[in-house]
Amino acid sequence: MAGPVIQAGNLGKRYRLGQHEPYRTLRDAITKAVGGAFRALHPTSSRANHGARVPASAGYVWALKNVSFEVGEGEVVGVVGPNGAGKTTLLKVLSRITEPTEGWARIRGRVGSLLEVGTGFHPELTGAENIYLYGALLGMRKLEIDLKFDEIVAFSEIEKFIDTPVKRYSSGMYLRLAFAVAAHLETEVLLVDEVLAVGDIRFQRKCLGKMEDVAEAGRTVLFVSHNMAAIEQLCSRAMLISEGSLKKVGGVDSVIEFYLSSVDARFGAPAGVLATSPDGSVELLSLTPTDREGRPVQVVQCGRDLSLSVLLRAAMRLPGVSVTIGVNTMFGTRVALLHSAIAGQTFPLAPGTHAVVCRIPHLPLAPGSYILDLQMFSQDESLMWIPQAQRLMVESGDFYDTGKTPNPKWAGFFYLDQEWHVSTISR
After folding, report:
1. What is the number of structural domains in the chain?
2. Is residue 52 domain-resident?
3. What is the rounded distance in angstroms from the CA atom of residue 376 to the CA atom of residue 46?
4. Confidence at residue 28, expressed as pLDDT on a 0 to 100 scale
């Protein structure tokens, strides 16, 4: 393997709470570059302003702190961590969208980044024009873009709208074109944030397949995702970032196991307000697995009755409320969906505290660890969505009441009720 393509040393990024970073014009950038060259020639001229560290203050927060790592040529490295950990900030610093407060970062080669839907696009330009704009920003020559243009458009599946200004695109169309451009232009390094969750399932699979092709072509990829299955499928190494710090770097399995163990720890936190709807109409107080007697449990046996109790507080009258609970593996694969509206149950909520309970008789889940997501609706309008709201451990149990249990390695996700019989066809 050649030398490192991506390097970072003691990288730190600090933001002031309650304020936005100002946008800089081209004139600002040129002025700053000239000023930097002047300070390099006359280092004492600005020592008073630039040499001292900014004092710590309660009005600031470190999005990144003391982050150091290397990524070799052709490596595909996954970046995992909870929301707000600093993963996107890291990619923005590496992409030079924002400057670090301290430390340094270097990337060898041309960089393509897909950090948000439509990053680098101009809303007034057409899809075709934005392909050339984004390619030019990445340092591509027009001839290079010409050669890839048809392939990009075909992948995005928006040929009919390629000459339409992108401000009229839906978020899904934006995503398709943005990913197609970033993945097809010949950059040596590709930085990808959690954008694949926006598209439909078929397009997500298509994007993952394209990223596999990118990795096999020897390009260097830094891939941020909450989808542990995608990280495991695509990446050779992984990094865990939490609270702005690099907690662990190593093999994918060891990093994911370390991360999931830290996720497990937070489920033991005391009860409180887990989430509040954006309009303040409802608060989620808890999502609690309970046994047949209504006692909270963290572990349940396969084949036993299980209830999931959603405790919430309504600040106003809410009509037509429904609740969905997604059951996922620890790697993010959805295995089941509990949906009160589909099951024929919606209900009005008066102001006050309520318990919404979903009972699952004879739990069919195979042994394993599962993550529960929760979403609430009022008259089909989403009130809140809480990923990773709770964890559920399922132990092996006598599901068939025979004293025998399947080998967990071959059991799949579910135990199914079954009846067997034999009939004689001939003698």
Report:
1. 2
2. no
3. 55
4. 54
